[in-house]
Structure formats: C-alpha cells, structure tokens
Write a structure and sequence with these properties.
The chain is α/β, with parallel strands linked by helices. It contains five helices and six strands; from the N terminus they run βαβαβαβαββα. It has a six-stranded parallel β-sheet with strand order 3-2-1-4-5-6.
C-alpha cells in the first residue's frame, strides 16, 4: 500500500510497544525502567510520526500485572519514562493504553479485542478508526487493527497468520517510507 498518498494530518497512529518500540523480553516482561531498551532508530521514527499524525497512541497487553510479576505502577513508571525519552528527542505520544488482565479473564480487553481503540476514541473523539493505522509485531496486533477497522502494518520477522495491509522490517522502515 502506498501510505504517502492516503495519510493525512487528521490520521491516528496506534502502536504496539514490546517488539515495536522497545526490545521484547522473550518469555518475560519489562518490569522496570532499566529493562526498557528502545529498538534502533525508534526515536527517529517518532520524530517523523509527530509531523504526519494528529494522534499517536500506544496499545499494549501487559498481563505480567495479572500474573503478579509487576504492578500497575511499575507499568506506568516504564510508560512515563518511554514518553519522556520520546518527547525529549522531539517526538510525541498522546496516550498509552494497556491491559493488565490475564488471557484467561472472561471478556478481557487484551488485543485482539478492539476495546483499547474504543477507549482512545472515547478520550479523543476526533479519532476516526477508518483513518487509523495499527503497527504491531504479533498476530494479535494485526487482528486488533482489523477488529477496530484500521489499516494494519506488521513489523519484524515473527510468524504471521494474517494478511496486513503492509509489512516492514522495523518501525523506522515504516516511518522512512512516509
């Protein structure tokens, strides 16, 4: 898909966190700032996104809270750190939504449920989900975007069962194309 021709300044960018913005801890969780490591060139990607999108929203499943491995406050501290680093370097994040629930909780709002997109639309009524893009590195991210009626971009080299609108090696590769 040629994104340059469809994205306008009123579009919203939704981003997964682990594996897209920061290094994913395999079979683990980022529980404190010291464990949060930006992927290469992600800060530069956010500088590009700031000029291209009206809203930039991060949506992330964090069931480590539900497992008792970390607290809500731990996650919020990591997110404050992430946003501060991005903003200090000239990027922006409007808000981070995360789901602390376990997969096993009935009617949870973890991705691929579109509920976090609906939370964002509630907080920012101008968001038009048909003028939104979800960027993620897992099947649940692509499915989340599809369930919410967004365009979808898959980054990285994880196995993918779905058919996103586009694929890129990294978040920065997607940003450069814009």
């Amino acid at each position: 898909m040629d994104w340059k021709n469809i994205i306008e300044k009123d579009w919203t960018l939704f981003l997964d966190r682990d594996g897209v913005i920061n290094v994913r801890i395999i079979d683990g969780y980022v529980t404190k700032i010291e464990e949060f490591e930006f992927l290469p060139n992600v800060i530069d990607a956010f500088k590009i996104f700031k000029d291209k999108f009206k809203r930039i929203i991060v949506v992330t499943n964090q069931q480590g809270v539900g497992k008792g491995i970390m607290t809500m406050e731990d996650v919020e501290t990591v997110h404050k750190h992430m946003i501060q680093q991005i903003e200090n370097q000239g990027g922006k994040v409007d808000k981070v939504y995360f789901c602390p629930q376990l997969k096993t909780v009935a009617d949870n709002y973890r991705k691929p449920s579109p509920k976090m997109a609906l939370f964002a639309k509630n907080d920012f009524p101008e968001i038009d989900l048909s003028k939104s893009i979800m960027v993620g590195d897992m099947n649940s991210d692509v499915e989340f975007g599809m369930n919410a009626g967004m365009k979808t971009v898959f980054v990285g080299d994880n196995e993918l069962k779905l058919n996103p609108d586009s694929r890129y090696e990294s978040l920065y590769d997607f940003a450069k194309m814009l």
